[in-house]
Write a structure and sequence with these properties.
Number of domains: 3
CATH topology of the largest domain: TIM Barrel
Shape: globular
Strand content: 15-25%
Strand order of the largest sheet: 7-8-9-10-13-14-15-16
Helix content: 40-55%
Radius of gyration: 25 Å
Structural class: alpha/beta
Distance between the termini: 45 Å
């Protein structure tokens, strides 16, 4: 029996990387007061082989054999391991260290992420998912956290990681994420930001402003009207028109930020990295608007980890920045100066593959930033499948083409399907090259939920099971793809 041999090797401290049909993650060994465990994989399942007889051995659930236990990598066992080994649980990092969000939609990417980020001057947010992503992938926050923690164990990583309840809007979701131990909260304020103000006439603007409560108007007028503020050598003056516009656009969002902070963050029993997202809007965030929001929060004693404005140009999913780089650099310098002035980090959302602007971000933030990625990790999974299972990739690609319009409801993209080379003109060896072409990248990027949830007439997954099996069987290939691709992100950011 392979597990018996592994248990004996664990006692002797001489583990082999494989025993029979079982892969042994030799770097995963953990020890507590004489109890010892190692993570292994048999087929598609990861398990823990545990020896000893102490409290750790007793607390882990599993099947007991003579002298050892084989335990599932379950949610319950993860909680046990978090108690005994604090480095396997997420932590808050605060404002002085660069952080990188690594949204792992599949629960398979974190080992590759750890290999990529290890030894770099930046901390990983391994668990990072939005409610929308969970709905589209059929996962929940327990599974997201479990996958990250077990990856940390598998890789023997002790450098710390974060867990981000990403783009949360509703109180019940915020409470749920905090109850589950998430250490970062990204508050999505888009439901409280007005998108109709920019198009208003002067008369409409004045009327909308006068309709606000008098106390609200007086508050902002006393603090901002005809006052000048200087940041990073640049001055912001709020005349009547600009003040009215900013109050109308952001006033209700600021009220919501204050409410969430006071109720959930200020008196939380542990440190929580609190991020404000104002990027999900129809128009870019002007630097003066960024300052306006930040000033209000700062003066009210709100301690934020980072803020994500919407930058000029387009940060579309899975492709490089679209827009005027000179204008981006000019505005980014101001946004970074504002963040620095108030002591928090500038956050860049939809940061996947924005290679042309990464050096600018690294320069003006002085290496102190937060960047979010997610979809690019899914795309590297698809690239891996295209390399090792071309038949599966072809079926997924065709399905994505047929359901593209359905997926567009969730994302702003400018994909031109006519620019994607027909499948029947591409040989198997060239299929991974689809992930180098912007239109094909976006096609696969935005259809991930449909692909993972697609079922045949009998209710069986069309792609998901084979997709997961392929990636688990080829975990080294997936890790190499991630190391190359995410490594390029970090290199250009100066990390």
């Amino acid at each position: 029996m392979s597990f018996n041999t592994i248990a004996e090797q664990l006692r002797n401290g001489e583990l082999s990387p494989s025993v029979g049909d079982v892969k042994v993650y030799v770097q995963s060994v953990l020890e507590h007061e004489g109890d010892r465990l190692v993570m292994v994989r048999q087929g598609l399942e990861r398990k823990l082989v545990v020896i000893g007889g102490g409290s750790l051995y007793s607390d882990l659930q599993g099947e007991a054999f003579e002298g050892f236990k084989v335990c599932p990598t379950s949610h319950e066992n993860r909680l046990v391991l978090n108690r005994y080994f604090p480095h396997t649980a997420p932590q808050a990092f605060g404002k002085q260290v660069a952080t990188f969000g690594l949204g792992d939609r599949l629960g398979l990417a974190s080992p590759g992420h750890i290999k990529t980020i290890r030894g770099r001057d930046i901390k990983p947010i391994l668990a990072q998912q939005s409610i929308r992503e969970l709905n589209l992938t059929g996962r929940d926050y327990k599974q997201v956290m479990d996958a990250a923690s077990y990856a940390v164990i598998q890789e023997g990583y002790t450098g710390g990681f974060g867990a981000d309840g990403d783009h949360l809007k509703l109180e019940q979701d915020i409470q749920m994420s905090l109850d589950l131990g998430f250490t970062m909260l990204t508050l999505d304020c888009s439901d409280h930001i007005r998108n109709d103000v920019e198009g208003m006439s002067e008369a409409e603007l004045n009327a909308a402003y006068e309709a606000l409560d008098e106390e609200v108007r007086k508050h902002y007028e006393d603090r901002f009207l005809d006052k000048t503020f200087t940041v990073g050598g640049h001055s912001f003056t709020y005349d009547s028109a600009s003040l009215k516009k900013n109050v109308l656009i952001y006033g209700e969002a600021i009220r919501y930020m204050l409410f969430i902070y006071d109720k959930y963050i200020k008196h939380a029993p542990r440190a929580v990295d609190f991020e404000i997202s104002i990027d999900e809007t129809m128009t870019p965030t002007a630097p003066e608007s960024h300052y306006f929001v930040a000033r209000e929060l700062y003066d009210k004693g709100v301690d934020i980890f980072s803020m994500a404005p919407r930058f000029c140009g387009e940060f579309q999913k899975g492709i490089d920045y679209i827009g005027d780089l000179a204008q981006f650099e000019k505005e980014l310098a101001l946004h970074a100066a504002i963040a620095d002035h108030f002591g928090y980090k500038l956050s860049i959302h939809s940061g996947s593959d924005k290679f042309s602007v990464f050096p600018i971000i690294g320069k003006y933030t002085k290496g102190r930033f937060h960047v979010k990625t997610a979809g690019t990790n899914w795309l590297e999974a698809v690239r891996t499948v295209a390399k090792v299972n071309p038949g599966l990739y072809r079926r997924m690609h065709q399905y994505a083409l047929e359901h593209f319009e359905e997926a567009k409801a969730y994302y702003h993209v400018t994909t031109d399907l006519s620019m994607i080379k027909p499948l029947d003109e591409v040989d198997d060896a060239s299929l991974p090259d689809y992930m180098n072409e912007n239109n094909a990248r976006q096609l696969i990027h935005i259809t991930y939920g449909l692909l993972l949830q697609a079922k045949d007439e009998e209710g069986r997954p069309l792609f998901k099971d084979e997709f997961y099996k392929t990636l688990i069987d080829q975990e080294e290939a997936y890790e190499q793809s991630l190391a190359s691709h995410i490594g390029r992100h970090l290199d250009l950011l100066g990390k």
